[in-house]
Amino acid sequence: MSKQITTIPARQDQSDKRLKVAAYCRVSTEHEEQRQSLKSQIAYYTQKICDNPDWDFVDIYAEQESGTRVYNRDEVQRLMKDCRDGKVDLILMKSLSRFGRNTLDVLLMLDELSKLNVVVYFETEDICSNDSRVKKYITMIAAAYQEESRQKSEAINKR
């Protein structure tokens, strides 16, 4: 009795689709070292996205703004709009602190992105927003960044 092998063709589904990838880069001041950091982030993520054959480069969203509030950050607003419009599947980011230093703002944005099936990868922390264990971690880290910002602000105001 000979064995017969049946070949099942692969389905064309989401796994075959190239990801639409963007990066968000932010620094909070206009100091020369911060400007250089922003330029470095932009160059790094442009190269990283363009070098991956499974990714389509969408855009780099970059700004020099404080991370304490979302409403005054034009580039993060443009990124969120592009995500709502279905232009982005994956957002690369140097660190959670680049996304924001207000815990509520960060969680609300991540919740909206999750509902839009957009994943955020935070490189420094090596975490993706779609990991079920990550919400607790993100809450703790974002709260720490928020407290750090509050302490810096108080120190500046005391001068």
Describe the protein.
The protein is of the alpha/beta class and 159 residues long. The protein has a single domain, classed as Resolvase, N-terminal catalytic domain (Rossmann fold), CATH 3.40.50. 46% of the residues lie in helices and 18% in strands. It has 5 helices and 5 strands, in the order E-H-E-H-E-H-H-E-E-H. It has helices at residues 32-51, 74-84, 96-99, 103-115, 134-158; strands at 19-27, 55-64, 90-93, 119-122, 127-128. The chain has a 5-stranded mixed sheet with strand order 2-1-3-4-5, sandwiched between helices. Strand 1 (19-27), helix 1 (32-51) and strand 2 (55-64) form a beta-alpha-beta unit. The longest helix has 25 residues, at 134-158. One of its GO terms (molecular function) is DNA strand exchange activity. It holds the Pfam family Resolvase. This is Transposon Tn3 resolvase.
